[in-house]
Write a structure and sequence with these properties.
Layout: H1 6-19, H2 22-28, H3 32-49, H4 52-58, H5 63-94, H6 110-123, H7 130-139, H8 142-173, H9 207-218, E1 229-234, H10 241-249, H11 252-257, E2 260-267, H12 272-284, H13 294-305, E3 310-317, H14 322-328, E4 340-345, H15 348-353, E5 359-361, H16 367-379, H17 391-400, H18 405-414, H19 421-428, H20 442-451, H21 455-463, E6 473-474, H22 475-484, H23 497-510, E7 515-516, E8 523-525, H24 528-538, E9 542-545, E10 563-567, E11 571-572, H25 574-577, E12 588-592, E13 601-602, H26 605-613, E14 619-621, E15 643-645, E16 666-668, E17 690-692, E18 714-715, E19 717-719, E20 738-744, H27 752-757, E21 765-772, H28 781-793, E22 802-806, E23 827-831, E24 850-854, E25 861-862, H29 864-867, E26 880-884, E27 891-892, E28 910-914, E29 932-936, E30 943-945, E31 953-957, E32 963-966, E33 972-975
Parallel strand pairs: 1-4, 1-5, 2-3, 3-4, 9-10, 10-12, 11-13, 12-14, 14-15, 15-16, 16-17, 17-18, 19-20, 20-21, 21-22, 22-23, 23-24, 24-26, 25-27, 26-28, 28-29, 29-31, 30-32
Antiparallel strand pairs: 6-8, 7-8, 32-33
Helix pairs in contact: 1-3, 1-4, 1-5, 1-21, 3-8, 5-8, 9-10, 12-13, 12-14, 16-17, 16-18, 17-19, 21-24, 22-23
Keywords: ATP-binding, Leucine-rich repeat, Nucleotide-binding, Plant defense, Repeat
Domain R13L1/DRL21-like LRR repeat region: 728-856
Domain Disease resistance N-terminal: 11-104
Length: 976
């Protein structure tokens, strides 16, 4: 199943060419000979790029061409690693201000080196020890820079020789040609065009879908902005879109409803002339072959359609060019109202282009229906009545199809006329991708989805082969991995890599290669056969180790392997993973946990073994191993490392050597409940964009100088340091923060100026902010006043959507809290602000939907200050309101004298009261949209429910005075 695609290689080669542009070379080195070598590389890569299209066309037929592509892929990886080492060295020099940017080979003499060292020693303060001076003079010196470039010369010479050999082979032996890489001109379509005819006896499980589409076609009132309406049938290849379109096209009711019908297989070549001519032939029986004028064809078609209700099926549409669709659809507007166009496509973007409404997403068949399709095409019957011995294995084959009728039909055809159990067991155990594709349609039907991906997307899709079948992954998870591998390095039109990654995920989902999880809409999953497609596309440079291959016997790997994943066991020992260490160029080490709850253990020697043998890792994960308490210092050897994932481990302290990982892009520390300390100094990690540590509740402080990490986009938790740690002012330079930020231990703030310097009001991309003081007793009034001033300075940007304030020790809230200028605030929480005596005027917030207030021990009354004085309708958008642990709360005063109570909380749907022991009186009586009411441990509260027409849930417990429900006449009819 080996495959190296021209387009994937094309993306790699193009990226290398861009890195070797003159301006890029200047940043890599000042060594003139090395510059010349790099420029030479660029020229040779451009020569290679020109013949990649020809190599792609010949790779499946000529083994020598495939070997050439394999060699080129390995060379591209090695070349990229060398350039990465130069970039890393350049960055290291920038971070050492006492060192010159570079030392030319001709000027690197011993005397110059020692003069530099003596000068450095004179500038060192008395606090710096002699050992530190020696360390600087040996490892961070001009000599070390010179030695680096000298060491790289031999590697550069080797790569140059390999490049020359590649070019020589392509010219002399393979005679590869310089051709235009145009997918449309190449023979990628290996399945025949479709027709409108269908054998209904061979179709199962689509009765419901057929009825729904027919109803849409017969509905003349369906939206028709252009005079006709478009209905799209969307889904992955092989799911049965064409078959469903054939069923409805031939339905008797549809036949009678439309005056004209036409079926056209559009396919990948959206030729407006060809499609128009095909439609005209179907409608007018026009057999003229002399028309070569599109204008004449469209005039004829418009005349035929004029005033007639028509149905047009455009099957297998790939075009996303709006101009083509606009030209093709010009004649359609002449049809009578109620005219319909059905478009079948794998790509939701095509449906959007045609303004399809509705977009009908076709799901997979059930296993039972797949079995019926399989039986029909294999045994020509409806069951196993004559072949009971095949029943068990047949059911397993049907499950293997994973709901794709085309797969069931393909495997059924393979078994046609065979009733020997051995034959059926062979098919069950055969990889679909090993079938002869010229005889079976499932392979080309799926592979065409891959062929039409842009080159960068092909790289990203192939990487997903590392995920096991049925694995549900989050969008951010795969984007961080793509970024670490360099697939998103090119930032188009100023977009961030993360934004480009989100676009790629959306595109793969739109093309039906990713599906949304049925259990969690925030996650994605790949159909089993799409997962197989990814593994086919990935070839030998990717390997996913399944449990069936993960015995204690030593597993052998290709030296070309670059990306490795495996499914975690309950215990993973050294023998299982030691073979990976033989692959010294490995870039990805990725354990995959199929369950977020299972506890996995890793042999203690494995991390040391991996870190000592795999120096080129870009992705290194120990996620989910609950016996990982520390990380070896050898982690500092991974100079290429971009992504380090220690989530769900018991790591306590990050080793100092991490600070030498200049390329580190992402550190994942989610659910690291025992993490206490990061590195003492993280200032060298200037490329760090993501530090996910939101659940690190034991983290003591952020390291001093944390503000140097100016590239940070996401930061889960910032812990205010007390003595040597980072203060709030370090947040000032982190101007790109986005998403969620949790600031903890605010009691350590010693200067109000620090809070002001944090400049939270300038963090325009922060959507969620949590401000937390640790649980403690605040008895000093001066401290209360100080914390009030601190919170006043921590005003977020007005675009914040969620805000939580917890443990605050001030007696009142600042005036900005509740200001109507926070027009996007949707979710607000106050927790255990025990010194506050009143609530802020949050009723003025126009879009506030969810409000939770708990532990406000000194609040005795809730009234006007809560609703606000500048809002005619308090809480206009509030949907859920919760009060809990309000120990001294006694009264809830209605809003304003003479104001109708139904003008407060006009959209409230859920109200909860917990542990409000002293609350007396009654609740607002006219909550017209209230659906759920929960009251527990409110001993003094008398609840009267008089006008709650939408109430569907009532939960009460320990309410001594009771709950009364009144009839409209005022008579109590029910009491709890």
């Amino acid at each position: 199943m080996s495959f190296i695609g021209e387009a994937v290689l094309g993306a790699s080669v193009q990226m290398l060419i861009e890195k070797l542009a003159p301006e890029g070379v200047e940043l890599l080195t000042r060594h003139e000979k090395l510059k010349a070598d790099f420029i030479k590389w660029k020229g040779m890569l451009e020569m290679i790029r020109a013949v990649l299209a020809d190599a792609e066309d010949r790779r499946t037929k000529e083994k020598s061409v495939k070997m050439w592509l394999d060699n080129l892929q390995n060379l591209a990886y090695d070349l990229e690693d060398i350039l990465d080492e130069f970039q890393t060295e350049s960055l290291r020099r920038e971070l050492l201000p006492q060192e010159p940017a570079a030392v030319d080979q001709s000027s690197a003499s011993t005397s110059t080196f020692w003069k530099f060292t003596d000068s450095l020693k004179r500038k060192v303060t008395d606090a710096v020890t002699l050992s530190k001076i020696r360390k600087l003079s040996t490892s961070d010196s001009p000599r070390s820079s010179f030695n680096f470039e000298s060491k790289m010369v031999s590697q550069i010479e080797e790569v140059t020789a390999r490049l020359q050999d590649i070019i020589s082979t392509q010219k002399v032996l393979l005679k590869l040609k310089n051709v235009i890489s145009d997918v449309k001109s190449r023979n990628v379509r290996q399945i025949p065009p479709t027709t409108s005819l269908v054998n209904e006896a061979e179709v199962y499980g689509r009765e419901k879908e057929e009825e729904e589409i027919v109803e849409l076609l017969l509905n003349d009132g369906l939206r028709a902005d252009d005079g006709f309406s478009v209905i799209s049938i969307n889904g992955m290849g092989g799911v049965g879109k064409t078959t469903l379109a054939q069923l409805v096209y031939n339905d008797d009711r549809v036949q009678r409803h439309f005056q004209f019908k036409a079926w056209t297989c559009v396919s990948e070549d959206f030729d407006v002339f060809r499609v128009t001519k095909s439609i005209l032939k179907s409608i007018a029986n026009d057999q003229s072959n002399n028309d070569d004028d599109l204008n004449l064809l469209q005039e004829k078609l418009k005349k035929q359609l004029s005033g007639n209700k028509f149905l047009l099926v455009l099957d297998d549409v790939w075009n996303k060019n709006y101009n083509y669709w606009s030209i093709l659809s010009c004649p359609f507007g002449a049809g009578a109202p109620g005219s319909k166009i059905v478009v079948t496509t794998r790509n939701l973007d095509v449906a959007n282009l045609t303004r399809a409404y509705p977009k009908y997403g076709l799901k997979e068949l059930s296993d039972d229906d797949c079995l019926r399709v399989l039986i029909q095409h294999s045994l020509g019957s409806t069951g196993f009545s004559m072949n009971q011995s095949l029943k068990d294995v047949g059911e397993k084959i049907a499950k293997k199809c994973k709901g794709l009728p085309l797969a069931a039909k393909t495997l059924g055809g393979l078994l046609r006329g065979k009733d020997d159990l051995t034959d059926w067991e062979f098919v069950l155990n055969t990889d679909i991708w090993n079938l002869q594709e010229e005889n079976y349609g499932i392979i080309p039907a799926l592979r065409v989805s891959y062929h039409f991906l842009p080159s960068q997307l092909k790289q990203c899709f192939a990487y997903c082969s590392l995920f096991p079948k049925d694995y549900e992954f989050q969008e951010e998870e795969i984007i961080l991995l793509w970024t670490a591998e360099g697939f998103l390095d090119q930032e188009y039109n100023g977009r961030k890599m993360e934004d480009l990654g989100r676009e790629f995920v959306r595109e793969l989902h739109s093309r039906s290669l990713f599906q949304q999880s049925s259990r969690d809409a925030s996650r994605f999953v790949m159909h089993d056969l799409i997962n197989d497609l990814a593994r086919w596309a990935a070839g030998e440079i990717y390997f996913r180790m399944e449990d069936t291959l993960a015995g204690e016997n030593r597993q052998q790997f290709f030296q070309t392997l670059r990306h490795f994943s495996y499914i975690c066991r309950e215990y993973d020992g050294k023998k299982r993973l030691e073979s990976v260490c033989d692959v010294e160029h490995l870039r990805t080490f990725l354990p995959v946990n199929l369950s977020d709850y299972r506890r996995n253990y890793l042999a203690w020697s494995v991390p040391h073994m991996l870190l000592n043998h795999l120096p080129r890792l870009r992705v290194f994960s120990l996620c989910g191993y609950c016996n990982i308490f520390n990380l070896p210092n050898e982690i500092g050897n991974l100079k290429h490392l971009r992504c380090l994932n220690l989530s769900r481990t018991r790591i306590q302290i990050l080793p100092e050597s991490i600070n030498s990982l200049y390329n580190l892009h992402t550190i994942l520390l989610e659910n690291c409940w025992e993490l206490k300390k990061l590195c003492k100094d993280m200032g060298n990690l200037t490329k760090l964009r993501h530090l996910r540590n939101s659940d690190a509740g034991l983290l003591e402080e952020m390291p001093k100088g944390f503000g140097k990490l100016t590239s940070l986009l996401t930061l889960g938790r910032f812990v205010v340091g007390k003595d040597s740690g980072s203060g709030l002012r370090e947040l000032k330079s982190l101007t790109h923060l986005q998403g969620t930020l949790r600031i903890s231990k605010l009691e350590n703030v010693e200067d109000v100026g620090d809070a002001c310097e944090a400049q939270l009001n300038n963090k325009v991309n922060l959507r969620t902010l949590l401000l937390e003081w640790s649980a403690r007793d605040v008895q000093n009034l001066d401290q209360c006043e100080f914390e009030t001033r601190v919170l006043s300075m921590l005003k977020p940007h007005r675009d914040v959507q969620e805000l939580t304030i917890r443990g605050y020790g001030g007696t009142k809230f600042p005036i900005w809290l509740g200001d109507s200028s926070f027009s996007k605030l949707v979710n607000l929480k106050f927790g255990y602000c025990r010194m506050c005596t009143s609530l802020p005027p949050v009723g003025q917030l126009p879009l506030l939907k969810h409000l939770k207030i708990s532990g406000m021990d000194r609040v005795k009354s809730v009234g006007l200050e809560f609703y606000g004085s500048s809002c005619s309708v308090p809480f206009p958008s509030l949907e859920t309101l919760s009060f809990s642990d309000m120990r001294e709360w006694e009264e809830w005063i209605p809003c304003g004298a003479g104001q109708e109570v139904d003008e407060v909380f006009p959209k409230l749907r859920k109200l909860s009261l917990f542990n409000c022991y002293k609350l007396q009186g009654t609740l607002p009586k006219r909550l017209l949209l209230l659906e759920k009411l929960v009251i527990k441990s409110c001993h003094q509260l008398l609840v009267t429910i008089q006008c709650l027409p939408t109430l569907t849930e009532l939960h009460t417990k320990l309410c001594r005075r009771g709950v009364f429900i009144y009839a409209r006449s005022g008579t109590p009819i029910l009491h709890w």
